[in-house]
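[step 3/7] inverse_fold.run input=structure_tokens len=332
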């Protein structure tokens, strides 16, 4: 099949690209501009996929791309995906995540109405969740607590509205926290792994700064998540939403995640430091998903243990730190 992945150079996008190539599809991806970071794609043979420059906030460029490629399947991952950045740049977050999704859906409606479209939602859509509401099903009320969460709710609703109003074949997934190799520096567990790698290399004092450690998150390896994306379009129902999550058995507090990373370190004198700058104006305290619908309808279940992925993440940052000779990376 001819498959398009928007945001192919992102964390999940690069893993999805690898998986789709292994499945034998004819794969294309979008980059926002010539200046887009391609580090996540450096290890993939460029002869095995095609790249197109397309800023999805540009409706004309998006329509031209869909009209030219006429893909059979579209995985829409391009987004502003970092929650704290949405507080600093709410307008840009809405433009990328809402307008960008609308442009994709409009382009498909006009130029590739037979295509199946996957819209990557987020567990951040659920927002404020009471303890008795966990684990969270897809029927849980959406109470987002960040501009990012609001933007993903809007994209989610647009996707399902286009399925209902125009008969487009659109499936939405709400992935809970996913991590692994190439996870962005800005995300908590990846940032901590980077700090530990620098401490081990003697480039940072043995002190790790952190934010809220009481929040509970549901973690899944990114390789399991992208397999879920593919199954969503192979087995899912148009207009349906599927949680992709590990559930209560893999939902540690952020403090537990940090302590497990420290335990994996070769250093035995690391201390933790609470940095007020890392706290959010409002935070989602508990995100534990119920993946029953995905298991039953898609045949999907996560298979890669949390501890294994955590070790892979730390080793990834050890290699990056060594390669960059200790330079602190603003974006990876």
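[step 3/7] decode complete -> sequence:
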């Amino acid at each position: 099949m001819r498959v398009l992945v928007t945001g192919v150079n992102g964390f999940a996008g690069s893993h999805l690209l690898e998986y789709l190539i292994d499945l034998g599809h004819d794969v294309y991806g979008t980059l926002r501009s010539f200046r887009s970071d391609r580090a996540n794609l450096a290890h993939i043979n460029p002869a095995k996929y095609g790249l197109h420059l397309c800023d999805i906030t540009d409706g004309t460029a998006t329509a031209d791309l869909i009209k030219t490629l006429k893909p059979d399947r579209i995985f829409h991952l391009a987004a502003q995906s970092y929650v704290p950045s949405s507080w600093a740049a709410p307008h840009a977050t809405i433009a990328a995540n809402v307008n960008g999704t609308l442009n994709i859906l409009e382009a498909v409606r006009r130029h590739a109405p037979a295509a199946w479209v996957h819209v990557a939602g987020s567990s951040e859509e659920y927002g404020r969740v009471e303890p008795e509401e966990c684990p969270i099903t897809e029927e849980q009320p959406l109470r987002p607590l960040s501009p990012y969460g609001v933007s993903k709710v809007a994209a989610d609703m647009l996707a399902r509205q286009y399925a209902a109003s125009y008969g487009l074949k659109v499936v939405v997934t709400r992935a809970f926290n996913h991590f692994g190799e190439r996870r962005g520096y800005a995300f908590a567990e990846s940032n901590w792994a980077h700090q530990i790698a620098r401490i081990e290399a003697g480039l940072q004092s043995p002190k790790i700064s952190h934010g809220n450690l009481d929040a509970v998150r549901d973690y899944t390896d990114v390789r399991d998540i992208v397999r879920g994306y593919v199954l969503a379009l192979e087995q899912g129902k148009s207009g349906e939403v599927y949680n992709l999550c590990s559930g209560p058995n893999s939902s540690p507090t952020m403090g537990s995640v940090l302590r497990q990373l420290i335990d994996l370190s070769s250093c035995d004198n690391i201390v933790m430091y609470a940095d007020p700058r890392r706290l959010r104006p409002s935070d989602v305290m508990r995100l534990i998903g119920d993946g029953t619908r995905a298991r039953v309808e898609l045949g999907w279940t996560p298979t890669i243990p949390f501890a294994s992925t955590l070790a892979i993440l730390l080793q990834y940052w050890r290699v990056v730190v060594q390669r960059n000779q200790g330079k602190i990376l603003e974006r990876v």
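[step 4/7] annotate
The domain at 183-217+249-287+304-323 is CATH 3.90.25.10 (UDP-galactose 4-epimerase; domain 1).
The two ends are 31 Å apart (CA to CA).
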